[in-house]
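Issue: copy button drops trailing tokens. Both records pasted manually instead:
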Amino acid sequence: MKIHVLSLFPEMFTGVFNSSILKKAQEKEAVSLEVTDFRMYSGNKHHQVDDYPYGGGAGMVLKPEPLFQAVEAITSTSKKPRIILMCPQGERFTQKKAEEFAQEEELIFLCGHYEGYDERIREHLVTDEVSIGDFILTGGELGAMTVIDSVVRLLPGVLGNGDSSVQDSFSTGMLEHPHYTRPADFRGMTVPDVLMSGNHAKIEKWRHEESLFRTWSRRPDLLTFLNLSEADQQLISQWEQNKNN
């Protein structure tokens, strides 16, 4: 996969792209990551990329020319990529969206600043608008880093264990079950016996039920999207009765 980022502050990505999973993914040649300062495409000697909004109002607005020209420079030698605008007005980013993006060969992220984007960027340049939550950041860089990390870890061969991303919270539609490691007894706090039983069927059943309980107790809204078995529904009914009692 090729990932391009257009940002006014490319130095923000240095530590993130050269650490941990993103660094390993590049070393394995699973992804190439490139950050471009789109001031280079401003077309004026002062490298101005923003201007006052028509009609008046507070703040400055990103001009269309730099972003259009930067994207055109990238896409002149490539297939048509997904062009993702990081914006609080965008679609809420989810694991499902990460899995969708992970199927693409090329992604371009646009990171804005100031009051917003010229509307022609939304209407005629981007394919997706994405938000990581209902809050405002100084710019789109931190949001883009979040999305890129969640996408790259899904690429084949990036994680050491291929099952890790499949079992993550939200990948199955539920929150992930609890995890334990050595020692089995830490200050009197012990690991559940079933996990040391060697009975894989019982372990999988325990993990499924724990995942279901954790989802029911912490994120019950997720249950509405699941096709629950009769056994799952009975468990939830029992938990609800115990809660009400």
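Record 2 (pasted manually too):
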Amino acid sequence: MLDVCLLGTGGMMPLPDRWLSSLLIRYHGRMVLIDCGEGTQIPLKMIKWGFKTIDAILFTHYHADHIAGLPGLLLTIGNSGREEPLTLMGPPGIKKVVEGVTVISPELPYELRLIELSDLERAEACISNLDIKSIPVDHSLPCLSYCIELKRRSKFDVERAKKLGVPINYWNSLQKGLTIALEGKTVSPEMVLGEIRRGIKVSYCTDTRPTEDLVKFIKDSDLFICEGMYGNEDNLCKAVQKKHMMFSEAGLLAKQGRAKELWLTHYSPSLTKPEEYLEAVKIIFTNTIAGRDLLTTTMKYVD
């Protein structure tokens, strides 16, 4: 199971009833956070999942509303008792940015491991048994979108294993992808495993114009969380100029990418009632939800 919490849904500045856009994903107690604008610690505290087991923080880009909350959060993670290294990932420039904001949080009881991801091509990493992929998007400075995938092992074929004479104590190793030597012969995983089963895919996209690459990147997402900076179509020119997205454009991406569900996020501060524009998006993509702070779901494998 994969737990997903939309910590905040605001863009540009936090509001009294809306924190800045941030996403928290939890698997087997370990967590990955995407973006950390000012005030992110507060919804993190409210969700009560803890701080100590955040293993990675991913940044879409380095505008303040996506990173200004980092130094305070790092100190809080330290105060929670963490001593393991913490991974920070983002587009080029992460070393300079992290050095700058951590001037006010210089003493941490754990190591910061920085991973710079390309802003020209796709990149991949694995954190806490989650596959993390990134893709460059179209914003006013280097910016990335992410997808988090929880892979699923192929189903073990007991009958095939028995026919091959594989003792039960070897079954676990084969299911984990290991090849074994058995009485002078080699047994490989594909000899006893069935077809690859569908896992869970969550895609996250803010601060960009829609692109064809994004459609391919988010393809078949179980949950697509996407920027909807403006709901009123009268703001299209502003969205193009500032390289943000409309509700309708997020809906079209979800439809073209065959996502199962769409959560809108990263609202303009002027958009006080995003739900008023929801029905127009549902005409494009039916299963659309106007994201709200602390919106949470638990995702399970589908057989």
